[in-house]
Design a protein that fits this description.
45% helix
Length: 685
């Protein structure tokens, strides 16, 4: 019955949130109901006044930075409300975690991390403007966000959330915490600048620096007003204290739901959706704004039994509960937005008021195919899988995933034009040879950090391989991309990268803009072609390339030749753009990536072995147990024009098995895979 009463309280909160009086698009009531806002702030004050003081300061900082960035009107009102309520989910965090004077354990950190989803659940129930909820949720994400498959680049994180994240971090750093003393402004800014481009938006950090320097005394004065506002928002009588305590009870209960289950929703007595949690959004793929106010039917949310038979309205657990007023629990399949089916355990809870009247029903979902026990470890593994281990920027797999999506969306007309920058550090081999690989590694890290700090909001920086980096620039045409590239090139040339050896580093860059006929490979190839034009024409410069500038190459079909009854040979070729003498150097990264054994290397030919044979020299089931020899030769295409804007190299790839493949098909599949990897690595046609 306690669950029923708490969820009923959430329903009442939703109804109160719907009663806002809208005095105009820029009024506070257009963003949040004033009585609801007062209740939420009072409850936060009742729970922990220090958290509310922090929230009030964060709101002041956020508005100040936003004004510095040119925001005005309703956007400032939305951001201010988001700043006030961004930590509302902490109301339900136990004291031993919220006020712990030391580092949180993994389990404690996992519980604390739930506060953003819980805050969003309550804010959705309170009918706050959906932009406020988006800002609050996004503000708890990493700025570059490439660990989240639902996002493309940092540009997908709301700018208000990036502002709020910086304000939150700055205020936390500059004020005493239970586990450390506050830092001075310069120390805090050094930390924020150090994390610009990874955790924080560099432009927003710069805006904070300018604003505090310009309006510092004003901020201190407003901070005093913030403390007065917090004191005035405390519950003034017993009734207000009981109301605040009741709201705190709701938050505590939501921590149980978020810890143990994957999502929930609440229906009123007319089966209309009144609460739709953020977990339900993720689990079922339907946004809160799409569901609230709609009537539940099995056509809107389809269920099936363990045989795959779809359940009618009367066969669903909801109707069983509505008729009996007793809770029910069943395992069913529910259809997600994309059409796939998911096995879930559904708990149906009748919502009964103090008079014993059924006011609605709640459904609570648990995905039976997934365990949350190792959620922190899973997140760390996911993060590691998407990042380059040395530099911390996106790795090549992450780059290709995002670029494929961007090209597809552009071809469908769903996104604006975008550009790609391809960067290569000049004379990097000599840096390693002269100063050692330790210095070389520090150069790579420094260049990656410099690129992140020099780029504007939204670009994705990725390490392509070796000393090569790629930048994806959404909503950027070729001219704007050239300006970005020049800013990176000039800043790098003027910066001392490795102080211990007074090392100056330069880089060459290639730039290209997406075209209607592009694939991921053709766009990367064109930018790579422009890069090698820049290197061939003197280094420390930028070249751009359009599709019309490229040599048309006729694709060559791969062939599989069988001879002597048991020996196989696969041969194919592709064209790429690079200085011919750099073929061996270029392929060194490919060798490292595949962990190949290099057998021979000269200017026109490279021989390597990929994979290791099994104990009896046979082929196994895994690719690394299907060894092959690869021979790459470098020449000039027959159809190359002397007037071509770029010089191409013809790369011929010959693959032969080491040991005995089980069949011609097995060898052909393995050989084609190796060929495609080499072709992709060279960003070839």
């Amino acid at each position: 019955m306690d669950s029923s009463r708490i969820l009923l309280s959430m329903m009442a909160l939703a109804r109160q949130g719907e009663l806002a009086h809208h005095d105009g698009p820029q009024s506070l009531d257009s963003v949040v109901s004033r009585p609801v806002l007062k209740r939420l702030i009072s409850a936060l004050n009742f729970r922990d006044a220090a958290t509310l003081q922090h929230s009030r300061r964060v709101a002041l900082l956020s508005v100040g930075m936003a004004q510095q960035l040119g925001w005005d009107g309703r956007h400032l009102r939305v951001l201010e409300v988001a700043g006030l309520l961004h930590d509302i989910g902490k109301i339900g965090v136990p004291d031993n975690i919220l006020l712990k004077p030391g580092k949180l354990s993994a389990e404690e950190a996992e519980l604390m991390s739930l506060h953003s989803n819980i805050g969003a659940d309550v804010l959705q129930a309170c009918r706050l403007d959906k932009e406020v909820i988006q800002i609050v949720l996004d503000s708890h994400s990493y700025y570059d966000a490439h660990i989240d498959e639902s996002r493309r680049t940092g540009a997908d994180i709301h700018l208000g959330a990036r502002i709020l994240a910086v304000a939150d971090a700055y205020d936390s750093l500059t004020h005493d915490q239970v586990f450390r003393t506050g830092k001075v402004h310069d120390e805090a800014m050094d930390i924020l600048h150090g994390d610009a481009g990874t955790k924080f938006d560099g432009n927003v950090v710069a805006a904070l620096d300018r604003w505090v320097e310009k309006e510092g005394m004003s901020y201190v004065k407003n901070e005093g007003h913030a403390a007065d506002d917090v004191e005035s928002s405390a519950p003034q009588n017993i009734e207000a204290s009981m109301e605040a305590g009741s709201l705190c009870h709701i938050f505590s209960y939501l921590y149980v739901l978020e810890s143990l289950y994957d999502g929930f929703y609440v229906l009123d007595s007319d089966l209309r959706f009144t609460v739709w949690s953020s977990g339900a959004e993720n689990l079922l793929g339907r946004l809160c704004s799409q569901m609230l106010g709609r009537s539940w039917t099995s056509r809107l949310l389809s269920y099936s039994d363990n045989t795959g038979k779809r359940l009618s309205d009367q066969e669903c657990p909801i109707h069983e509960v509505m008729e009996s007023s007793r809770p029910a629990c069943r395992t069913v399949n529910v259809q997600q937005r994309g059409g796939s089916w998911l096995e879930v355990e559904v708990q149906c809870v009748p919502l009964i008021d103090y008079q014993g009247t059924l006011q609605g029903v709640a459904e609570i979902f648990r995905d039976v195919s997934r365990s949350k026990r190792n959620a922190p470890q899973f997140r760390e593994l996911k993060l590691a899988a998407s990042r380059d281990a040395l530099t911390g920027v996106a790795n090549r797999g992450e780059l290709e995933k995002h670029l494929k999506r961007m090209v597809h969306e552009y071809s469908q007309g769903d996104t604006d034009t975008f550009s790609v920058l391809f960067l290569d550090i000049d004379h990097f081999k000599s840096i390693n040879d002269t100063h050692g690989h330790g210095v070389g590694d520090r150069v790579l890290i420094s260049v990656a950090r410099l690129m992140q700090s020099e780029l504007y909001s939204g670009e994705l920086v990725a390490r392509y391989g070796g000393e090569e980096f790629v930048v994806l620039c959404p909503s950027t045409d070729l001219d704007a991309a050239m300006r970005k590239a020049e800013r990176i090139r000039s800043t790098l040339a003027e910066t001392a990268i490795e102080d211990s050896v007074r090392l100056k580093v330069t880089a060459s860059l290639g730039v290209s803009q997406v075209d209607d006929k592009d694939t991921m490979e053709s766009l990367l190839h064109r930018a790579d072609t422009a890069l090698y034009n820049a290197k061939e024409s003197g280094r420390n410069r930028i070249c751009k390339l359009l599709p019309k500038d490229c040599v048309e190459a006729k694709p060559v079909e791969p062939s599989l030749v069988k001879s002597n009854g048991s020996s196989y040979t696969f041969e194919s070729e592709f064209t790429t753009c690079m200085v011919a003498s750099m073929g061996v150097y270029k392929v060194s990264g490919f060798v490292n990536e595949l962990e190949a054994d290099l057998i021979e290397a000269n200017e026109g030919r490279v021989v390597m072995q990929v994979g290791q044979p099994g104990f009896f020299s046979g082929w196994g089931n895994r690719e690394n147990r299907r060894p092959v020899n690869i021979v790459m030769t470098f020449g000039e295409p027959e159809n190359q024009s002397a007037k071509a804007a770029s010089r191409r190299v013809l790369v011929t790839v010959t693959v032969t098995p080491v040991g005995t493949p089980p069949s011609a098909d097995a060898f052909e599949q393995r050989a084609k895979r190796v060929f495609e990897l080499s072709r992709c690595y060279f960003a070839a046609d």
